[in-house]
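Dear colleagues,

As part of the handover before I leave the project, I'm documenting each prediction I ran so the next person doesn't have to rerun anything. This entry is a single chain, and its sequence is reproduced below.
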Amino acid sequence: MALPGVTVDILTTRKIELQQWELRRLNDPYWRLYWPLEEGGRVEINGVHTDLIPSTVYLIPPHTTFSTTTHQPFSKWYAHFNLGPVADRAAPGIYAFPCSPALRALLKELIKLGSAADSPRFPWASVLLVASVVQKLPTSIWDQQRLDSRVLKAMDFMNQHLGLKLTAEQISRHAGLSVRNLNHLFQQQLNQSPMRLLLDYRLDEACRLLRHTQDSIDSIASQCGLMNRHYFSRMLRQYRNSSPAAYRMESWA
């Protein structure tokens, strides 16, 4: 199945050693890839527990609500990444795949690069590993993305112009539809209006910047088209149940 506009955007990647791993009901707008190097970690989703084992690599799509814990200290290699506005709307859950020799070779290279003083600027090995694992996902997790091409066009337009003060008229014009018809298509296929999805995109990007940059809250609000920090804080509390400062301080490994 074709997913137009898919990219691999690595947000962070590294090996980490954890004495404790106590995350509570995280729900973030980016993918997680976990590769445990030792036993000890556990992920819980909707009451179902998955013990992470070293012979397996795990993917958790964006907006999956999950918690973690440890029964002993362990280490893991992980990556946070995005695939683009369409592919990031994958079905939530945790997806496990056995490690192949090729994946093991990539991980070895990543760990070696991560410990080198002159690590390369571009994370090509990380991109290759992420892409190699993502392609193992069942196509069924994207079944919900069999969307009208005009909806996809509107989604891409919104995602590419988060910092602008977009109107429903601009979005519908770009998609080649009237405002009424675009609203109807969005409600039919996504169960929400274009402007509500635009707010989701803005909050997603704001959360990504909070978690992976040192930009100020005022700057993030401006970059994401959220008017000002007060409006940003109100929307984040209303739709993500957190304040910008609290979200930034949460553990994200």
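The radius of gyration is 19 Å. The longest helix spans residues 194-212.

All the best with the project,
I.
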